[in-house]
Specification:
By secondary structure, the protein is mostly helical. It contains 11 helices and 2 strands.
Length: about 280
């Protein structure tokens, strides 16, 4: 059948190109019927593809009960934008990387011009940009392309684009498993953009299981812990990050090169936090 949103041939419950529902579905938030061709319940704003993403973190630092994504559209809009101050800076840096990187940016997509339907900054735009075909990519390439899309939109303050593509990006990373530490950092950052700090912490901790010294996941775990009110956990993650900094930088990991503009920011934030906290 043709997707009622983007017109692409699709089958199943959701369009593989734009993520819109192909059939009427009960909303998981308010149980109202969600019309085909939509991604969010028109009554409460719950994404039709939403599913629980909180990972089990019992026994780990940072398990304080924290902020969860709201069920209403207003709460969702507020949730991703009222993230921590460092996150806003990271979004700005990542947004510049993504929007100026062109087709060769890490995990990048083909460039999308201003005013193109679906481009960052196009109010109300739905679906991938016409010149980006996710079906031709590997699962990880598609996930990274959607990550870049969300980061670019968030850096421009485009809440419509974030709401459209954030659930798709998270689903794409689930399909791309198993993930390396960088992929799990991407999930953690996406969850922080969505205001789901428990899930953000869980993804960062999963990344730290593979490499307990991973600078990006240590930083993301610390930021999520701060938002969850776990100051001790944040101090632990930040302290470890600074302790292993030189050794990790010398390891010359590809993701550190790709995210090089972020590194001085997360180090400065860690040093400031520990100085203010007396650590």
């Amino acid at each position: 059948m043709a997707c009622p949103q983007c017109g692409k041939a699709s089958r199943g419950l959701f369009c593989g190109s734009c993520g819109a529902s192909l059939v009427e579905l009960p909303c998981s938030g308010c149980e109202r019927e969600v019309p085909a061709g939509t991604r969010f319940c028109t009554e409460c704003g719950t994404p039709v593809r939403a599913r629980g993403r909180n990972r089990e973190t019992s026994g780990q630092p940072g398990t304080a009960e924290g902020k969860e994504q709201g069920s209403s559209l207003a709460e969702v809009n507020a949730g991703w934008w009222v993230s921590g101050a460092l996150l806003l800076v990271l979004l700005a840096v990542l947004g510049v990387q993504v929007l100026s990187g062109g087709p060769d940016a890490p995990g990048g997509t083909a460039s999308v011009g201003p005013g193109t339907p679906g481009a960052p900054g196009s109010p109300g735009a739905l679906g991938p940009a016409p010149n980006v075909d996710l079906s031709t990519m590997t699962p990880r390439e598609a996930a990274d392309a959607l990550f870049n899309r969300v980061m670019g939109a968030a850096s421009e303050g485009d809440s419509i684009q974030v709401l459209n593509f954030l659930p798709m990006a998270l689903d794409a990373y689930e399909l791309a498993r198993p993930l390396d530490e960088d992929g799990l950092f991407h999930i953690s950052l996406l969850e922080r953009v969505g205001g789901n700090y428990s899930a953000a912490l869980g993804a960062a901790l999963e990344g730290l299981e593979g490499n307990p010294d991973h600078l990006l996941n240590l930083s993301s775990a610390a930021e999520a812990a701060v938002e969850l009110g776990d100051v001790e956990g944040a101090r632990e993650y930040y302290s470890r990050m600074l302790d292993v900094w030189d050794e990790e930088i010398e390891a010359d990991r590809p993701e550190y090169a790709e995210h090089s503009p972020l590194l001085p920011l997360i180090r400065a934030d860690a040093e400031e936090f520990l100085e203010q906290d007396g650590g």
